[in-house]
Structures are given as structure tokens and as C-alpha cells.
Specification:
- It comes from Streptomyces pristinaespiralis (strain ATCC 25486 / DSM 40338 / CBS 914.69 / JCM 4507 / KCC S-0507 / NBRC 13074 / NRRL 2958 / 5647).
- One of its GO terms (molecular function) is oxidoreductase activity.
- With about 210 residues, this protein is of the alpha/beta class.
- The longest helix has 13 residues.
- The relative contact order is 0.13.
- The site of NADP nicotinamide-adenine-dinucleotide phosphate has 24 residues, from helix 1.
Length: about 210
């Protein structure tokens, strides 16, 4: 699969490494331009190439957005419209600046990114610390295999993202749409940062865990 990654920090580079390892065709971008990513590309190797954010958005059959939430209005909207986009972003007001709608919980960061880009958005990889994402992948059936919560409206898009999660060694747990479901795994939500198996995470959801 062609995967475009926007944001080449801790989460973007960790996902790039995983997706290259399992055989995908991956491009990665940041805000400073492809030349600034030469070292990362050399280190990860394989199919990985550095491009602009616009090119990553155009290239990917799936595009992963891994930037500070406060910069989402810089995303290339035309190329992301209708595309399957994985949103890994979290809202941290101390880093991103205050967003009154989010402070009042009138909407969520993912819904705002979806509205801005027109993307077919799936929220995933936002609730796991980048070092666990790097190190805690395990084969299917391993009792220590960790869960990654996901949310979104489109079941086909969620199935694609769930497949990627399984292929890099984790179990996806579907929490529902990005509004209600997304709140369970955004900062402050019960599943945010929770280091659980899929069974334990599903138990929490069945028990009504939200925030
Ligand atoms: N760190 C974690 O453990 C973790 C876990 C889950 C989710 N998250 C969330 O995932 C997102 C990324 O986190 P991170 O820790 O990977 O951040 P990070 O290490 O600070 O990296 C951020 C990346 O975003 C790029 N970027 C910023 N604005 C951009 C733009 N307009 N276009 C393209 N690229 C842009 C930066 O590029 P430049 O350096 O060139 O500006 C940088 O490569 C955040 O929303 C974070 O809250 C983080």
C-alpha cells in the first residue's frame, strides 16, 4: 500500500519504520522540507522517501497525520479531501494554544481536522506512547500483545487501519465514531495511555468507559 506520512517526529518516524518493515511504499514529510529528513531516510532505509507534505498527501492511499494539533490548519486540504486519513494528533493547550471549542468539549480535535480537510478520518495511534509503539509490538496470540483504540465513521476505512495495526504487532479496538468513541481515547479519556490487552480494553468499553 502507498502510505504518506505528514509529520516526522516521534510518532511519524516510528510509524514509518514499522510500515517500511512490513513492506509498504512509504513517503514522509515535515514542515521544514525533504532535505531536512535526509538523515532519517538514510537511517530507516528501504522504500522510504522524503517529500513535501502536499506530496505525501497526494501519494498516500492512506495518509497519516502526526503533527501538533495546533498546526492542523496548515494541512494540504485539496489532496486530503475524501482520502483515508489516520489522525494521531492530540490537543494539548499548553503546546497548541487554547481552542475554546475543545476546552468546552463542544467538539473534538479529530472532528475539527475532519471538517477542515474533508478526509475520511480514522483516529488511531494517538493513545499509545511513541516508545511503546516502537517497542511493544508482539505476534498475534501473544498474551502481552497490546491494544490500540481506533475510532471513525467509515467501517471500510477502519478495517484498513485495523489491518495496519495488526500487521505491526498490536490489536485494534474499535471504540465507535470519532465523536463519542474518539473521546474515550483522547487525552482525559479512559483509554488514553492505557496499556491494556484488547480483551481488557473491550471490557472497559462494555462497562461504559468514556472519560
Ligand atoms: N509523542 C508521543 O508519544 C505521542 C503519542 C501519540 C500521539 N501523539 C500526538 O501525535 C502528534 C505528533 O506527535 P510527536 O510526538 O510525533 O511530535 P513531534 O516529535 O514534535 O513531531 C512533530 C512533527 O510534525 C511536523 N510538523 C509540524 N507542523 C507541520 C506541518 N504543518 N506540515 C508537516 N509537518 C509538520 C514537524 O516537522 P518540523 O520539525 O519540520 O516542524 C515534526 O516532524 C501530536 O499531535 C501528538 O500529541 C504523540
Amino acid at each position: 500500500m502507498k502510505i504518506g506520512i505528514i509529520g516526522a517526529g516521534r510518532i511519524g518516524s516510528t510509524l514509518a519504520r514499522h510500515f517500511v518493515r512490513i513492506g509498504h511504499d512509504v513517503v514522509i514529510s515535515n514542515s521544514r522540507g525533504p532535505k531536512s529528513l535526509a538523515g532519517l531516510v538514510e537511517e530507516i532505509g528501504g522504500t522510504l522517501r522524503a517529500v513535501t507534505a502536499e506530496q505525501a498527501a497526494t501519494f498516500g492511499q492512506v495518509v497519516v497525520v502526526c503533527i501538533p494539533y495546533g498546526r492542523y490548519t496548515e494541512l494540504p486540504t485539496d489532496a486530503l479531501n475524501d482520502k483515508v486519513v489516520i489522525d494521531t494528533c492530540n490537543y494539548y493547550p499548553e503546546r497548541d494554544g487554547h481552542d475554546v471549542e475543545l476546552d468546552d468539549d463542544r467538539t473534538t480535535s479529530s472532528e475539527k481536522i475532519r471538517a477542515h480537510t474533508g478526509a475520511n478520518l480514522v483516529k488511531a495511534f494517538n493513545a499509545i506512547h511513541w516508545a511503546n509503539l516502537r517497542d511493544r509490538g508482539r505476534p498475534k496470540g501473544d498474551p502481552g500483545r497490546a491494544a490500540i483504540p481506533i475510532s471513525g465513521t467509515d467501517t471500510e476505512a477502519k478495517a484498513v487501519v485495523a489491518g495496519l495495526i495488526r500487521d505491526i504487532g498490536f490489536d485494534p479496538v474499535d471504540t465507535g465514531d470519532i465523536g463519542r468513541g474518539g473521546r474515550t481515547h483522547q487525552p482525559g479519556g479512559r483509554l488514553y495511555g492505557a496499556e491494556l490487552t484488547a480483551e481488557a480494553m473491550n471490557d472497559l468499553l462494555r462497562a461504559g468507559a468514556t472519560t
